[in-house]
């Protein structure tokens, strides 16, 4: 396997323009002869499917939900970054590029990030034209707000539902193409495997979740926009259906998997209340503007928060990071909260929580001001916990939120399998070791609307395609494997439910490969995962049959893949002998407990090649060179 | 607390269904309604029975995937709340709950509490968009939108497409859903060129799909987890009447695409 990033030559701000000119075009009349499969209908998938169809390609789009409008992009709250500089506050394409590279702790590819920043301004234009109801000022012009990791105001938003509105924009563009027959939409259909013929991605095998029918779909190129793998941890802020299956199957068919250990943890989520917990809910980071985070000074202090006087409280973020206080970046805040809980000073049931207290802010500003700023968030908190945060401090705890790792792609978003493209969170591309807030929406739409439609044409214009259809032997073989797999699940008839095994995997990953990792623990979990996988394959209980809707069977397939993938994630975490961004290895920290990068030995993308289940994968390194941004140590003291 | 559930079980789309009784034991008030069902299902699976099928995904009230009727109320007793955000503290020990799927001709049952809502997608496909292709958009701030209009448009755009409005309506009308999209786009300057064609196409499609007509009952607004206002139906009606007249006057010039 060879990693060719295919980054164009020339100065950074000219690379994309030069490349766009140099790419081959497909004649408009020929476009209709090409079939493209898009898996996933989130921001990246839906925008790609719609844009490719507009160009004239024949597109098939697949999603496992009942409608493409339900992809998990819909849950993004905060906003989308763009270097419009409407505020006249010194923003520029270069500054957005710089902030993103730095925010990613210098583990992303400069050329990709710069292109993202360039394209960001067009995304806003496109979305406004589609009718996305962005927040406005009284002038009628677009409003922006500030977000973490930046000193300019460049985040465009639609109340607390920016992801929803952007996704509906892309969904409507997709609906328009479905209506004219340019896109064939397959809802409630799950991709089970990728089909590679003569080294090229030529299609997928799917299962119709309503009828159970296994089917083959052939194409000239396949695009995966299937999101991240946070649900390997069982509890995360992701939707229940989010899974690693599509990209994991592609990995097993030859696509390199990059930086799987880069998983982002969000500091402000509602804590776990018990064994029954099925998912975690995010509370917007903006709450940290007025809320103060604290725990009792004494271990095991069981007094109610209002009975703990100021001198017995530890406002630990303000104490450790006096200059940033409660507004330290996500990774720093999360680790500090974990540390105090590990010292048995956590609050709430199980001691896995810290207070986010608005008492002082309410005294200073009045309850009405706090209600105006955060009313909807307070309501959501109250709905979930039954506690009124105007009277009692909120309890929060970090949770897995986003995965920066994903399938390795070159500058053209193509994986190591020719003809297989990967967009959005499913690829590893632009966020390095840590993603800044409001950048996920930007990347998903940049990939789908403005990058893939060009780069995929360049491939189709040059590749040689003997026409294949779904009757090709390769499809029949993969279909056979998929059926066999399903029969295996159903035939085990063990004693444990899929969820109970998934929960156990999640707990292992959270304990050993979560907010802090160390070599001993990682070696330990690398023993435990294969044991749990064995347990799954011998003792899982999947009721029902293959015909018709069977949600337990769907889960079994996803968890089986998580059980294989988890091993790669931990292997990668063990291999990366440094701390950077969200990846915190306890052995590599400064005397003050801050992450210590090793730019000499670890300034690379770790891209893994699959060699077999339970076998050691092969590591390939794509060296990262920084010609524009200088590498420095982040400090928030 | 302990609850008695009567759950609609139906194995296939065209088969017969019936209520089956289950006991939910040791339910914590901190559980969401769906987490309570998860626990019931874990019990069913280990006893070798088929779990209750229900749709869900984000479990934070935004994706619109979940939804069923609890004791006759779509999404259950708490106003402005999807069933995934409904917590068990809204119930008390000893309660008896009847769970059934959305009942509407246009939403056929797939299994148990799951229905097929693809008719909603087809309403959007018939015209619930602005026909702009990628790439040709003008500079975003070249088109000011008054704050008032933008806010009102956003009020309508918050619709999550769950289908509770249809389930709550005695006519199984999709009027609130359609009105939300017509208003979201019709309130913005970008949406003007297709405004009247859009409302005609979408209304025609809704009728074709088998949704009933609106008789201004208002159950839809009461059941809507996003509290979408009935006012938008008034706005739709106004646009629809105007569009119907416009269509008549334009027909003679053969310039009307609809």
**Contiguous helical run count of chain B:** 8
What's the oligomerization state? heterodimer
Radius of gyration of chain B: 21 Å
Q: Which stretches of chain A are low in confidence, meaning pLDDT under 50 for 5 or more residues running?
A: none
Largest interface, and how many residues on either side? A-B, 80 and 80 residues
What spatial form of chain A do the alpha-carbon principal axes imply? Answer: globular
Q: What distance separates the N and C termini of chain B?
A: 57 Å
Separation of the first and last Cα atoms of chain A: 43 Å
Top-tier CATH class of the largest domain in chain B? Mainly Alpha
Count of DSSP H/I helices of chain A: 17
Q: Would you identify the CATH architecture of the domain at 473-615 in chain A?
A: Up-down Bundle
The largest beta-sheet of chain A arranges its strands as: 5-2-1-9-17
E-strand count of chain B: 7
- The unreliable regions of chain B are 254-258
Shape of chain B: elongated
**What is the CA-atom radius of gyration of chain A, in angstroms?**
24 Å
Per DSSP, what share of the residues of chain A sits in E-state strands of 2 or more residues?
Answer: 5-15%
Characterise this structure.
- The complex is a heterodimer of chains A (637) and B (258).
- Chain A is α+β, with helices and mostly antiparallel strands.
- Chain A has 17 helices and 19 strands.
- Among the domains of chain A are: 266-400, Flavocytochrome C3, Chain A, domain 1 (Alpha-Beta Complex), CATH 3.90.700; 473-615, Up-down Bundle (Methane Monooxygenase Hydroxylase, Chain G, domain 1), CATH 1.20.58.100.
- Chain A has helices at residues 15-22, 28-31, 43-55, 93-103, 110-130, 162-179, 245-252, 316-320, 330-342, 359-365, 367-385, 440-462, 473-492, 498-513, 519-539, 551-575, 599-602; strands at 35-39, 58-62, 80-81, 155-156, 183-186, 189-197, 200-208, 214-218, 221-224, 257-258, 263-269, 292-296, 313-314, 354-357, 394-403, 406-407, 420-422, 604-609, 618-623.
- Chain B is of the alpha+beta class and 258 residues long.
- Chain B folds into 2 domains: 3-111, Ubiquitin-like (UB roll) (Roll), CATH 3.10.20.30; 118-251, Orthogonal Bundle (Fumarate Reductase Iron-sulfur Protein, Chain B, domain 2), CATH 1.10.1060.10.
- Helix content of chain B is 35%, strand content 11%.
- Chain B has helices spanning 33-46, 118-125, 147-157, 164-168, 175-186, 195-208, 219-223, 231-251, and strands at residues 3-9, 18-24, 69-70, 73-74, 96-100, 109-111, 114-115.
- In chain B, strands 2-1-5-3-4 form a 5-stranded mixed beta sheet. A two-stranded antiparallel sheet of chain B has the order 6-7.
- In chain B, helix 2 packs antiparallel against helix 6 (195-208), helix 5 runs antiparallel to helix 6 and helix 5 (175-186) crosses helix 8.
- The longest helix of chain B has 21 residues, at 231-251.
- The chains are: A alpha+beta (637), B alpha+beta (258).
């Amino acid at each position: 396997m060879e990693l060719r990033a295919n980054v164009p030559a020339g100065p950074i701000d000219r690379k994309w323009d030069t490349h766009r000119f140099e790419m081959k075009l497909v004649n408009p009349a020929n476009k209709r002869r090409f079939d493209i499969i898009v898996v996933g209908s989130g921001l990246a998938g839906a925008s790609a499917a719609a844009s490719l169809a507009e160009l004239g390609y024949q597109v098939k789009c697949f999603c496992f939900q009942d409608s493409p409008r339900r992809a998990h992009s819909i849950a993004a709250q905060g906003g989308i970054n763009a270097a419009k500089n409407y505020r006249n506050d010194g923003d520029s394409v270069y500054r957005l590029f710089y902030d993103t590279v730095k925010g990613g702790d210098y583990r992303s590819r400069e050329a990709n990030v710069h292109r993202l920043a360039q394209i960001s301004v067009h995304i806003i234009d496109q979305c406004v034209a589609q009718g996305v109801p962005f927040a406005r000022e009284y002038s009628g012009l677009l409003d922006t707000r500030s977000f973490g990791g930046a000193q300019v105001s460049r985040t465009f938003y639609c109340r607390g539902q920016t992801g929803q509105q952007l996704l509906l924009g892309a969904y409507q563009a997709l609906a328009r193409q479905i209506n004219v027959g340019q896109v064939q939409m397959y809802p409630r259909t799950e991709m089970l495997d990728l089909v590679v013929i003569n080294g090229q991605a030529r299609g997928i095998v799917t299962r119709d979740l309503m009828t159970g029918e296994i089917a083959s779909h052939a194409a000239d190129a396949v695009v995966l926009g299937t999101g991240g793998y946070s649900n390997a941890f069982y509890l995360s802020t992701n939707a229940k259906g989010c899974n690693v299956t599509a990209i994991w199957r592609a990995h097993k068919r030859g696509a390199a998997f990059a930086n799987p250990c880069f998983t982002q943890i969000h500091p402000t989520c509602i804590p776990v209340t018990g064994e029954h917990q099925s998912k975690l809910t995010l509370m917007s980071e903006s709450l940290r503007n007025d809320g103060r985070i604290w725990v009792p000074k004494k271990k095991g202090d069981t007094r109610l928060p209002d009975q703990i006087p100021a001198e017995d409280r530890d406002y630990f973020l303000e104490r450790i990071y006096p200059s940033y206080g409660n507004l330290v970046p996500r990774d720093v805040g999360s680790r500090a909260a974990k540390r105090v809980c590990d010292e048995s000073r956590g609050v709430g049931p199980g001691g896995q929580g810290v207070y986010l207290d608005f008492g002082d802010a309410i005294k200073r500003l009045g309850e009405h001001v706090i209600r105006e700023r955060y009313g909807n968030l307070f309501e959501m908190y109250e709905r979930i916990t039954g506690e009124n945060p105007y009277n009692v401090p909120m309890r929060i705890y970090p949770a897995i939120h986003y995965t920066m790792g994903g399938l390795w792609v070159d500058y053209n978003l193509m994986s190591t399998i020719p003809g297989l493209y990967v967009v959005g969170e499913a690829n590893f591309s632009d966020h390095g070791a840590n993603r800044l807030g409001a950048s996920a929406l930007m990347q998903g739409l940049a990939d789908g609307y403005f990058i893939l439609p060009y780069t995929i044409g360049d491939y189709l214009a040059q590749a040689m395609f003997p026409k294949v259809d779904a009757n090709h032997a390769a499809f029949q073989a993969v279909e056979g494997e998929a059926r066999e797999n399903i029969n295996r699940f159903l035939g085990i008839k063990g004693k444990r439910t899929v969820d109970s095994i998934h929960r156990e995997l999640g707990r292992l990953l959270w304990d050993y490969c979560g907010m802090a990792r160390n070599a001993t623990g990682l070696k330990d979990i690398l023993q435990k995962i294969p044991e749990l996988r064995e347990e799954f394959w011998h003792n899982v209980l999947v009721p029902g049959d293959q015909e018709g809707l069977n949600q337990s069977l769907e889960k079994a397939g996803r968890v089986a893949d998580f059980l294989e993938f988890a091993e790669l994630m931990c292997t990668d975490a063990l291999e990366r002998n440094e701390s950077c961004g969200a990846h915190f290895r306890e052995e590599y920290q400064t005397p003050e407990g801050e992450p210590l990068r090793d730019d000499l030995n670890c300034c690379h993308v770790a891209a893994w090649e699959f060699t077999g289940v339970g076998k050691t994968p092969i590591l390939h390194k794509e060296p990262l060179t920084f010609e524009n941004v200088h590498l420095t140590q982040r400090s928030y003291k | 607390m302990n609850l008695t559930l009567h759950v609609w079980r139906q194995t296939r789309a065209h088969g017969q269904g019936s209520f089956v009784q289950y006991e939910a034991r040791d339910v914590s008030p901190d559980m969401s309604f769906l987490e309570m069902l998860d626990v019931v299902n874990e019990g069913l699976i280990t006893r070798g029975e088929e779990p209750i099928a229900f749709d869900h995904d984000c479990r934070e009230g935004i994706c619109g995937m979940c939804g069923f009727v609890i004791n006759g109320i779509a999404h259950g007793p708490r106003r402005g709340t999807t069933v995934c955000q409904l917590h068990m503290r809204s119930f008390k020990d000893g309660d008896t709950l009847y769970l059934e799927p959305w009942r509407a001709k246009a939403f056929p049952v797939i299994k148990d509490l799951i229905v097929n809502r693809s008719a909603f997608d087809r309403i959007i496909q018939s015209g619930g968009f602005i026909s702009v292709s990628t790439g040709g958009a003008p500079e975003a701030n070249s088109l000011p939108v008054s704050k008032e209009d933008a806010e009102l448009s956003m009020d309508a755009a918050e619709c999550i497409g769950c289908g509770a409005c249809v389930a709550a309506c005695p006519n199984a009308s999709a009027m609130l859903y359609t009105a939300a999209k017509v208003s979201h786009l019709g309130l913005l300057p970008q949406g003007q060129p297709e405004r009247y064609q859009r409302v005609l196409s979408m209304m025609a499609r809704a009728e074709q799909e088998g949704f009933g007509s609106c008789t201004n009952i208002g159950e839809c607004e009461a059941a809507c987890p996003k509290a979408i206002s009935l006012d938008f139906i008034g706005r739709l009606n106004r646009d629809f009447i105007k569009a119907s007249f416009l269509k008549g006057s334009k027909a003679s010039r053969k310039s009307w695409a609809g």
